[in-house]
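ingest -> fold -> write
write: protein_1
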Amino acid sequence: MAKISGSDAVLKVIQKWGVKHIYGLPGGSFDSTMNAIYNQRETLKYIQVRHEEAGAIAASADYKLTGKIGVCFGSAGPGAVHLLNGLYDAKEDGIPMLAIVAQVPTKRMNMDFFQAMNEEPIFDDVAVWNRTAMTAESLPMMTDEAIRQAYAHNGVAVLTIPKDFGWAEIEDNFETNASVHTVNYPAPTAESVADAVKLIKAAKSPMIYFGVGAKDAAEELKAASEKFKMPLVSSVLAKGIIEDDYPAYLGSTGRVAPKPGAEIGFSTDLILWVGNNVPFSIFLFNKKAKVIQIDIDSEKFGKRHHTNVAIQADAKKALAAINAAGEARDDSAFYDAAVADKKNWDKWQASFNDSTESPVRPEPIFDVLNQEASDKAVWAIDVGNVNINFERLIRMHDDQKWATSGIYATMGFGVPAALAAKVNYPDRDVYSLSGDGAFAMLSEEILAQVKYNLHIINIVFSNETLGFIEAEQTDDSHQPLSGVDLPDTDWAKVGEGYGAVGYTVRTKAEFKQALEDAKKTDKPVVIDVKLTHAMPFTTEHMYLDDAWQDKDKIAEFVKKYDAQALKPFSYFLKQAQTN
């Protein structure tokens, strides 16, 4: 029987599961697995990141962009601990991931040895499966089990390998379960579909609220919207499932959302709630509204809003069944008002596309991005005000993809996620979008982009503040600004120092020229956009409706955000009711 090292056996298993690359940074305790990575260099690509956190974030982004598990590693002690931030991103967004963690040799474990620590407890909270190998022979089976558990529970699996087990020779006879791994979600019951149809028929102002659980059901969502005259609102992470220019799609809801999506939930009397588990949902909808909830996980029913009809089923199957069983509805004032509200918002945003304000507003920059990005562009979006601007201003369409850190919302996500995007989609145009605060956290991963000659356009929006936190301190807690100011930094020169091509821009024309120039190089690019310090339009503290809000506050709000052309949803509802 042929022999193989324990670590080589581990890597053979992950490749059987379709893994083509692995992210990490070597350490002495990981030498045996680095040797296996070298042995299998022709079939498994190793991506050397500059911080283990970035490797874990990139592995999380792998699944977010491709639907296939990502793999990262860390050495014993500090390398293991560094992984945690990226692992928590995967945990909170329900992302399957495998983290391979090194341990010192077994004869040095639990002996107060260099970089030795009891690693399992630190991963107990973040992982759905967390085990340390007890024998070298168990490594291939444990790897297979780790991946199965990660997929089964949509979470992180952690496999810890003592260094000597990685070197040990074992029999090369393990067969994985990868070829028989299947996913088949249930169909809805006839009774639940009938109950849903009955509620839809009786509703006066129904809407659809969908999340990433509906990622394969775009056509069914649009068919339901059109047949039952239900405007569509999504979670933030579900942006792109339906193209942004679809008339009845109002965008997401909550703080980062466009105005129409943030308004509509308070006026609905029925929500068709599809594959969505956003924590903030408890604040964003009429508490008296009835809910038809579709999810594959029964634990989600009623978690964010009381549920009247629960349908445990695949979103695509459930929506198709409801569409087939229900009667078409006539246009309603609620539906027409929602569509008109979106038109008003889109027109208002577009009115700033050619603004010459200095420092530059976000609208001119995103207008250029919408024009220049291809139908297959991939966006890696960091956390902060850049999330707000992306959510409202990028018009997702065709086969564009994007990823961000959702529920965990870790700053620093953008650059390593762009690394993952380009590794997975080498022939697509890839953009990372970050604020200056977030870019500073993991900007060293530009070095990885340079090392592998990856043509990624990294855009830094510099406004010298932690803008998302500044707005919270100003609008929510009404406190003096504290700890949010950032020094003016020349990020283009920082990028050049890393080996990328750098540009500093202050106008729409300069940004457009920088993008054109960026197409002429195959190197990574860093574009430093000197952005306005003004905060984005707030949907949490809007003052637009003189039917119930203070007129002085409305005047102050309208002046602050140049919102003279915006009307509240109630305005369009009243118009629709009188037509």
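write: protein_2
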Amino acid sequence: MTTPFPFTAVVGQDDLRLALLLNAVSPAVGGVLVRGEKGTAKSTAVRALSALLPEVAVVPGCRFSCDPASPDPACPDGPHEPGPGAARAARMVELPVGASEDRLVGALDIERALAEGVKAFEPGLLAEAHRGILYVDEVNLLHDHLVDLLLDAAAMGASYVEREGVSVRHAARFLLVGTMNPEEGELRPQLLDRFGLTVEVAASREPDQRVEVVRRRLAYDDDPDGFAARWAEEEAAVRARIAAARELLPRVRLGDGALRQIAATCAAFEVDGMRADIVMARTATALAAWAGRTDVLAEDVRQAALLALPHRRRRNPFDAPGLDEDKLDETLEQFSGEGEGEGEGDDDPDPDGPGGGGGQPAPDAGPQDGDTAARPEAGEGGEPQPSGAGERSAVRAAEPFRTKMLSVPGIGEGAAGRRSRARTEHGRTTGARRPRGALTKLHLAATVQAAAPHQRARGRLGPGLVVRRDDLRQATREGREGNLVLFVVDASGSMAARQRMSAVKGAVLSLLLDAYQRRDKVGLVTFRGSGAEVALPPTSSVDAAAARLEVLPTGGRTPLAAGLLKAHDVLRVERLRDAARRPLVVVVTDGRATGGVEPVALAGRAARLFAHERIASVVVDCESGPVRLGLAGRLAEDLGGTAVTLDELRADSIAGLVKDVQRRAA
């Protein structure tokens, strides 16, 4: 087994190490979510934590790690006789992003269950992680059905395996630790709330610290055992401090004053539910124990807020995580000195420096409507255009609004989501088939029907049904899939009017929000001037798409054909990477095409490529003014899709759009 990188040898990342250590002191804190760019020691620190955890006592031979002091009466390997336990190291179990449902929760032998009535159960990763750490790297890429199972287990402290009336239950209490790169997509709010703490990590910009990171990593790679030996003393000291803090934890006093500060802070930041209050209380208590104190101080409450609240105050996926620290300090000061005086020390609320674990307020993303910009002049199509180079700075998006669902016609087989119809592992049962590989969802009626004609030939004598492998039938189910929503946005001079571009960005932002909620991948192609560019390759990060949209400049000619051809290339490449994910192309333009030879005819030929390949498409018509040319409608006809105005895109006026998309693409 490879020697892990020592926890104490990790350079910097103070917030990350503190959050992990607090969970080691008090597992009731509820785990930690580590957010940050790649290459910032997220996985290294998490894997190193398991070596610091105290040993656990287990019932010898129990596959479910029952505690000998209080064994689970419903343990599938039980009942357990009283007796001494065996000590073993705490486990850290990794859940791969592509794991199957059976690998996570365990597998039941359906054939033996039906034919013999025997609960032959093979435990999964949840059983293995019981009383240890369950680590999910790239947790934001985890499939929805696995997320649902994790949520159930985390909420109930147990895992249930149900197969057509045959059930197995076992305890599954674990410390949930996840790492993620926000550029690759966000987590569902339900799972996000299950993490007790969150930290944002980034690579240091200090040359000396970066040099030390490289030096230690090279030394570890050259001689892992020797490197670990040099840090053994520091590791032993931290391990002893964790044990001492665990012993002190029950004696830590959380007074009324600290409780009022916690409640006031959660109320001030408008977090949903009461889990945040409970997590903050447990975190503040763990902080006091880690510091060797028996009283919770205001500095503990402040640090707990910075760790427990940033991921809970997000109202939509475009809100940057983090807390307004000035507002936090004002709230703590307002409620300091009440109750039993735990508010002392507010003059220096964070001895380790500002920003401990929390993010910063989102910076201003762009100019306001009243900001000065280049004075517009009459440009292409009579629209205002900036003087000089023909490009104007970005404008802010209008407020997003709720849109109704756009879907791809037909039935797909893509990744689970919430947009278009698809054959999936979860959903309503529509039929049965022979299983391909392992059986996951039994169709009981079809299995019995297949086995019934062969009972006499198989020598059946008793009431039991003689079932063979060939009789088993897999249930086919229909649910929803996520799609690739590719935005093709016109950023030319004809779109450069400030009010119009703000409305256009607001519409695209609304569709991006809808894509986030429906678990889609998104991509962004823009065209202006002399060509088109892929502003964002297809990704699960709707945040990244919103950020690129926010800084999008406008100006120049309208190379519509170039934009469509670039989008076609993106779809071609993405089809090779993920053939099962069906695309939906959303073209945001007024339909004008300028520049080059016969730009309108060229754009029409490019659009007909999409129609020929039956790619579902929608044109958002951005044309405004008293004189309208209807060019967006003609473009939609060439695409084989439908056109909708910005006003019609809103949820209350888009009722017929999905039918039009399906009719035109059929």
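write: annotation protein_2
The radius of gyration is 29 Å.
Residues 434 and 470 are 8 Å apart (CA to CA).
pipeline exit 0
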